[in-house]
Design goal:
3% helix, 4-stranded antiparallel beta sheet, mainly beta, 130 residues, 7-stranded mixed beta sheet, 1 helix
Length: 130
């Protein structure tokens, strides 16, 4: 079992920055790939970014590429999402998630799919004002 807790959300103006954190407890943190998703009101949960267990490989959705950066610190059992040049359309609840990884894993095949992730946090609200 892995418990995930997000923090760092809030209200920011267009063009501003926020850094989200996802603190993990329970099973070995570096046994999991980590991901960030977001969900706006009335919309389905959408992929934002993912990072492998060691932090050597990352993948960002096209809508955030060049503005958001996912990272992790295994010594601190924490994943991060640095969000720069924020836009009103980035407004959503942001969720972190943990996925078992390795050859044959669902994460290896579909890292953008919510179903590839085994554990989820409660979410943190990000609101970008125009």
């Amino acid at each position: 079992q892995v418990h995930l807790e997000e923090s760092g959300g809030g209200l920011v103006q267009t063009g501003g920055s926020l850094r989200l954190s996802c603190a993990a407890s329970g099973r070995t943190f570096d046994a999991y790939a980590m991901g960030w998703f977001r969900q706006a009101p009335g919309q389905e949960r959408k992929f934002v970014a993912t990072i492998n267990w060691s932090g050597t490989n990352t993948y960002h959705a096209g809508s955030v590429k060049g503005r958001f950066t996912i990272s992790r610190d295994n010594a601190k059992n924490t994943a991060y999402l640095q969000m720069d040049s924020l836009k009103p359309e980035d407004t959503a609840v942001y969720y972190c998630a943990a996925a078992r990884h390795g050859d044959g894993s669902r994460w290896a095949a579909e890292p953008e799919s919510p179903s590839a992730y085994d554990y989820w946090g409660q979410g943190t609200q990000v609101t970008v004002s125009s």
